[in-house]
Amino acid sequence: MHRLPSRWLVALFAVLVLALAACEVDxxxxxxxxxxxxxxxxxxxxDEEDEAVDDDEAVDDDDAALEEEETELTPAxxxxxxxxxxxxxxxxxxxxxxxxxxxxxxxTLLEVxxxxxxxxxxxxxxxxxxxxxxxxxxxxxxxxxxxxLVNDPERLSAVLGYHVVEGExxxxxxxxxxxxxxxxxxxxxxxxxxxxxxxxxxVPIVEADLEASNGVVHGIAALMLPPAE
Length: 229
What we know:
The protein contains 8 helices and 7 strands; from the N terminus they run H-H-H-H-H-E-H-H-H-E-E-E-E-E-E. By secondary structure, it is of the alpha+beta class. A 7-stranded mixed beta sheet has the order 2-1-7-6-5-4-3.
């Protein structure tokens, strides 16, 4: 029996070692393939983004509609406060034999209400109580003061709002010390004068309880100015 040369045995042993090593490599997990540099990364689906934008816009639209619905004023039926002021805008013919003075008129008040864009408010359901300066009351104001007010709609609106109270308050419901918050945010106070008559901030009421479909008007003898902020 012939024996293999020792160098062949060494070579055969080396081949066996390499074969075993190759089998171990095959059993290991295959490495992940490198990303293709030419492949663009995944981006958010544009359709999903459009749907999200549409949902946000729908919510914004609903909020805007709700806000508009909350601030929308419902017109009142019948003769409103504005109609009443218009009806009393012209002075009646003076009867020299009449024992009672002529009724107060409110033409100037109606003009400044229109200038301040408060017609929609005083035409709405309300109800409101308006302490209405008469034409004689406005005549007591310096001409430049009234002109300045008309030229400053924001200030004019604040002044007129100081004469309007939410809710209907008849003259016989006014009591000394009563306070009412006006639509301008400031408060007016009922004060009893020495004659026992009720006044608003000390201003006499010259005509009471003019009824309208959306409230009541009390004519007063002076234009009231809200307290300075």
